[in-house]
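Subject: Protein entry, chain in single-letter code together with its fold tokens

Category: Structural biology, sequence-to-fold work with a learned token vocabulary.

Notation: Tokens come from a learned vocabulary of local backbone shapes, not from coordinates.

Start of record: The labelled sequence and token lines come straight after this line.
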Amino acid sequence: MNETLPTAPSADSSPASGRIAFLGCGSMNEAILAGLLAAGTPAANMTATVRRTERAGELRGRYPGLTVLAENEDPEANSKAVAGASVAVLGVKPAGITALCRSIAPALEAQTVVVSVAAAVTIAAMEAALPAGQPLVRTMPNTPLQVGRGAVGLSGGSHVSEVQLKEASAVFAGAGTVVMVPEEQLDAVGAVSGSGPAYAFYLAEAMAAAGVELGLEPAVAMTLARETVAGAGLMLAVEGADPAALRKAVTSPNGTTERAIAAFDAAGLPAIIAAGARAAKERAAELSRELG
């Protein structure tokens, strides 16, 4: 059964408990880390690993008290980071996930929850590379985690308990909302929310281009499009907001907006969006097969 976990970002979000290791600290893992700090998790409770000394120094300067290990200085950085951790968040590229699982396997404690934020790598593939019985959670996050408004799909592996699922979901508490789904639905989650920010940015691009075509200066058109999409997003973020109701509130009978929506419907825009989501889901399945 699908479940929305109570992890929407708010001033009352509870800090995650236990020590958390972030293996790889690119934009996604850094966004999750920053969300935890905002929710009250002490930097001293977290360790991050990166590939280069320069990146390690950057993160230490940005997040005082955070332990950051660089692999070019210490090839055992990942294993040292997971030793004694309650949660290990894998944030490397999909092609490197199973190799990372194999490399840290000897250092993992039996109850450490391994959380993957990588697309396309299946639970089965990761479990095969981890110690037998290791708790594992696969997630599908999106880039608005960077601004505290992320959406995360979460699926538990074969050996994870309900308590451990909640522990994994708490990692995202400061930066997004978590929806628990069966693993077979994660590609659909990716097609809607994982790729979804790009759809919104694409819309803003198209709106700005339309404004230029109608005679606006490019900078003016871009400002109007950008702020309109951002403002509409904030309205949708209000608890209980219904996009259909919000749309209807702007659409006066026989008005300009009604004419625009009619043109979108005539062009088959809903079907175009559905086709795009299907294409994204199909590509995710292809990537899973390619990654074995």
About this structure: DSSP finds twelve helices and nine strands in the chain.
